[in-house]
């Protein structure tokens, strides 16, 4: 029995004012000895509760206080004044304990219903795939984020030529400009008309995680002008397209189409001006939340109205790069890639490495190649394989990495794409070593054994990037690693056969449509586009080349009206028809068309441009067409229905055959 219980039985109040602690301790020991000495002094609280002393609830503290005050309330014979003092002291103690544990007691009262409510607000726990996708989106945003100051080529021209020269030139051109506001990409010219409301707007569609999706929209007036423009294009008369620009100076597709005509006539300044005006009209319609610098704004290329921004930016960055503004071209390439990085409809990965090297952004290029390798296999593209090796070489010269890393990267590129070496050295006017040229790995066999799709990418890389290899310090490095690769080939390195298998598997069949679209827009004479029958069903237009198969079309291309038959044609019409190479006077009407088979307008234009036609032939043809235009304005050459029908049958048969292969 404890000492407190003994005192209670003996009538002790326990309210001694001048109590001696030592005497109390002795009394406790004596009472324990009188009780047998087998039990220790018991505490007022459960000793296991000491483990949870810092998390006691308010109810437990209240119960403990009640247990402590019960002996004092049941005791008799005590002094009333002492009882009142003790009671006040206990009340103060209760208030202090309640104030100290108010916050903790609120946590104890947080029940399961409130937890469920919070879970409903936060939503379900994200899966591993969604977390990985969000991390990839964040990395893409960091890689493709830009500074708006780098989008203006004038800022780069100031760094190249000096501020005074560029500003003096700008003052001469901007003295009368009072009605056009500057935008982030294009600096408007004083010769441009007032833009007003051209009928294009941008709509905010949705939020997908960290990505914001937008879309362009055309109002009814702009749709009417667009249909007039499509009819003008189908008429094959450039004057009709120019008339659309005269009546609607900021019609985007008409500006892009006429810019291509100016480029073909080598009026590059006018072509650049028209592209900038089209881009200015598109930028003027940006949504307030559409920020190109953030790298998280998306446009769906499948929507017909959105493609104009992709194509205008591509043409603009190409012309900016030709003016030696490589950093601006790199930032614009990031913008185009950020609009749809998953599908990359214009295959910007085929050109962004060039502008990164020319602008000396070596670390960024290596980071892009490393972070996108797992998801995009950038090392399987010849341009990225060689460009990242060059970037690592420059970083090694700067001391950022070891030269052995650059050597390994270049040797891997040479083993993976040996067909690049010979045309690259030939383009650089470098005499190829006889030992290298005589070896089967780098010799003519490497050129003939390449798949057609890979050969096209090799031609594209050599035509664009050969000036990069003209640096004096790169050629000895290339020669040293070429001999190292030959030694590995002769020693039967298993990496050689492994890369050969990857190369053959990856480049089977025709190239993807986005690569063909990129080559069409690049318009390099050394790289003619190989358009398969399934990629295009008609002429390839520069304002919308090779639309995607799942295109969401607001406009349909109008069909050309059928003309009169040959039987009803006049003598003058028959005379002009006799000028055609397939005309035969002994055959019935329409037989020459059937014998000729289907003619692809796009393929005909490409073959004419790249098979030795030359600039002089095109100029003569243009002059001839100008002279004949007035004569033939009111004369419509009839087209034989039988020939067209036979051509349609042959065309459908060819398409089916192409699909089977």
Automatic annotation (TrEMBL):
Highest taxon in the source lineage: Eukaryota
Organism of provenance: Cloeon dipterum
High-level lineage: Eukaryota, Metazoa, Ecdysozoa, Arthropoda, Hexapoda
Ranges for region Disordered: 1-112, 637-661
One GO cellular component term: RQC complex
Bias (Basic residues): 85-97
Identification of the protein by name: Transcription factor 25
InterPro entries: TCF25/Rqc1 (IPR006994)
Ranges annotated as biased composition (Acidic residues): 61-79, 648-661
